[in-house]
Structure to design on (186 residues):
């Protein structure tokens, strides 16, 4: 595991309390006016911070129904040379999460791609690749992104998070609705 950084990114919310029992959200940055009508009022500003975990969340769904699909297998590879790093499988809710840890190096571009569809489902003909990296030094980011294919984007999981939904088509739906010139997929 990585050392905890000196700075932890938090989501900050501002609230203005005017009198007992009143709490109204304020815009960011917080602004409010003291007017002749409220100049003698007591004002309290409450600032609350919530930690947002930096992770990549992938949710697998059945294309036809939207049901979540457990058991989809994914492989994480280094983008520069397609070297396999680790594998993940969607849980009972059809979800997998990637966050920092021993499997990943700072300043390296990775992608995750589905390599085995859940039982009874087909892999997409062109499986979607989701690119990500961990970098705490903005000067290094252009070098990291140099192996990113044209037209693709990548998320820096050191600074933010991302959620992606991917779908699979069931084999029975495909065999009933596909016109493949007499060919059927197993």
């Amino acid at each position: 595991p990585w050392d905890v950084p000196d700075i932890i990114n938090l989501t900050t919310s501002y609230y203005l309390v005017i009198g007992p029992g009143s709490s109204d959200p304020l815009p960011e940055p917080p602004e409010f006016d003291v007017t002749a009508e409220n100049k003698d009022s007591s004002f309290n500003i409450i600032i609350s911070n919530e930690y947002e975990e930096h992770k990549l969340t992938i949710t697998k769904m059945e294309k036809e129904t939207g049901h979540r699909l457990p058991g989809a297998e994914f492989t994480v590879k280094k983008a520069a040379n397609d070297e396999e790093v680790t594998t993940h499988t969607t849980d009972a809710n059809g979800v997998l999460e990637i966050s920092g840890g021993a499997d990943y190096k700072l300043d390296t571009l990775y992608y995750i791609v589905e390599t085995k569809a859940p039982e009874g489902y087909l892999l997409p003909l062109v499986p979607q690749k989701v690119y990500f990296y961990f970098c705490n030094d903005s000067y290094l980011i252009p070098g990291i992104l140099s192996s990113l294919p044209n037209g693709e984007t990548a998320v820096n999981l050191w600074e933010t998070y991302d959620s992606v939904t991917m779908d699979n088509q069931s084999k029975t739906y495909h065999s009933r609705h596909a016109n493949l010139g007499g060919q059927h997929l197993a």
Remarks:
- The two ends are 42 Å apart (CA to CA).
